[in-house]
Amino acid sequence: MSKAPPKASVDQPTELDDSELDHLCEATEAAIVDGGGFGWLKPPHRPRLETYWRGVLLVPERSLFIARLGGIVVGSVQLVHTPRNNEAQRGVAYLQHLFVAPWARRRGLARMLVRATERQARQEGCRVLNLDVRDTQVPAVTLFESLEYVRWGTHPYYAWVNGHYVPGLFFCKLLNLPKPPPDE
């Protein structure tokens, strides 16, 4: 008798209990060690990481989405809106800090996280979703291209990693195009 694979899901918490926070920190640490995310090149001390995640939930312009595998938090992404005082970029949001722990990959969780972020952004009236990623994060680049994000630029000095500059790639996706004005 074969065992059913653990259930994969994505949700948008407004708070994290101690167990969820612990699992999120463990997944974050593993993703950083594996070469991804947050600008950290090595995991920070646990109290700093816990403070970071608690802080994310307090920022009104940020929405946190978490991926679960068998009920355990294994990844996340953030939807970040432009500040309220930026009228010109109202309707533009950013997909940031996407990651899935190495042991939970290849189950569609990153795709589920991106799709949940897009749905929420649309519901909130966003028209454009932007993101950037190091060009060394090939699986992420492949994912974004497969989800019809358009690569619009490269920054040759995007990040300093292991003693040299790593280029960064910039992507965007149109979510809700404004309706054209009526014919005059």
Largest sheet: 7 strands, mixed
- Strand arrangement within the widest β-sheet reads 1-2-3-4-5-7-6
What's the rounded overall pLDDT mean?
92
Low-confidence stretches: none
Estimated radius of gyration? 17 Å
Q: Which percent band covers the strand fraction?
A: 25-35%
Helicity, in percent? 25-40%
N- and C-termini, Cα separation: 68 Å
Supply the helix-strand structural class.
alpha+beta
Query: How many runs of DSSP E, i.e. beta strands?
Result: 7
Order of helices and strands: EHHEEEHEHEE
Any idea what the shape is?
A: globular
What do you see in this structure?
The chain is an alpha+beta fold and 184 residues long. It is built from four helices and seven strands. It has helices at residues 18-33, 46-56, 109-123, 138-146; strands at 8-11, 62-69, 72-81, 92-100, 128-134, 150-161, 164-174. The protein has a seven-stranded mixed sheet with strand order 1-2-3-4-5-7-6, with helices on both faces. α3 (109-123) links the parallel β4 and β5. α1 (18-33) packs across α2. It is globular, with a radius of gyration of 17 Å. It starts with 7 loop residues before the first strand and ends in a 10-residue tail after the last strand.
